[in-house]
Amino acid sequence: MSFNVSKVIELINKYGYRGLAHTVTTADGYQLGVHQLVRKQGPDRKLLPVLIIHGLLGSSADWVLIGPEDALAYQLARAGYDVWLGNTRGNRYSRQHVRMSPNEAQFWNFSWHEKGTYDVPAIIDFILNKTQPPSQQIYFIGYSEGATAYFTMTSSLPQYNGKIRLAHAMAPAVLLDKVRSPLLLSLSESSPLLIPITQSAQMGELFKWSEQQNGFIQTMCPPFAKRNPCIVLFENLFGPNSESIDMHVVQAMMGHCPSGASLKEPKHYNQIMQSGIFRPYQEDNTERIVKPYNLTLSDVPVHIYYALNDWIVHPKNVRRFATVLPNVRELRAIGGKKFTHIDFLIAKRVKETLYSKILFNLRNDARKISLQVEKGLNTDP
Hints:
By secondary structure, this protein is of the alpha/beta class. The chain has 13 helices and eleven strands. It has helices spanning 6-14, 72-78, 112-130, 145-156, 182-189, 191-200, 211-220, 229-237, 247-254, 264-275, 315-322, 343-346, 350-375; strands at 17-25, 30-39, 50-53, 83-85, 96-97, 138-143, 164-170, 205-206, 261-262, 302-306, 328-333. Strands 1, 2, 3, 4, 5, 6, 7, 10 and 11 form a nine-stranded mixed sheet that branches. A two-stranded antiparallel sheet has the order 8-9. Helix 11 links the parallel strand 10 and strand 11 (328-333). Helix 3 crosses helix 4 (145-156). The radius of gyration is 20 Å and the shape is globular.
């Protein structure tokens, strides 16, 4: 299986780390490109592996593109962790299937429900079997849709709770009835018209990545223009915070994003926006009401970070769904009043604002494991 891994692997290797590409096949036949990042001397085998899952239209590149001093993946690897960067079905690194072609409409018949019930479990099992010596648990970090998939998995397949030692959810897109983005609200209001059009045109794929398309976007968003189309889009979609934006980072990001997705994913999110209920996809041709995900089953210790100026994931939505979870270790608004949805990835001070907190939590947990091992005790968190 050949994946276009050159960009991510080149970025990893460029700064003195080792990047490896793996293929993970899900139970329903999707073949996912997963990237592994470790320091040159190899990971510290006393530390559990870390899996990071990107958001909608993102990819593994999201965790390395802001550079070796600030990007989360490099920081984790430098600290000795075995870092795994997932790519969920439909993005540029995960466009293969054992039977179907991405040119077939059926290939794109998935939402983030399948990412949570097939992709993330398959990646976790692959990591647990691949590490030497084999690990019993991993650490999980998910951003936006990555967190959506996580809570889908842990509530739908509760056996996977036991495979995760500690989780971090950044801007978790779980409840969305208080979305503030004028762009998303306009699209949601127009959905009765837009959805039939996309269905009649058999448009299954959303924003396919191509070198020509992304190169054009970079040209449209030059780093010297402070009010270029990318910034206008970001402000209307994620929330305004011009002080946190590094224009060179924005242009680098546009070289990797959008990375492709299924149209069914925003359709599923739109159902959550309109209903206010976190539940599986409701098919158009059925009146059967789908039961909500049982979030009380998601009992892994979790740190949840949200932003006060996030126009997609409203703080009230985060605080509301967190009350249902049985094991919230931390619920924290970060970055002050202006921090937005996209700032979790590219804010100028995101390392100090957020990533350092994640590293601190992982170090504390690793220390706890070490002490328990020394005493011969059970290592449950």
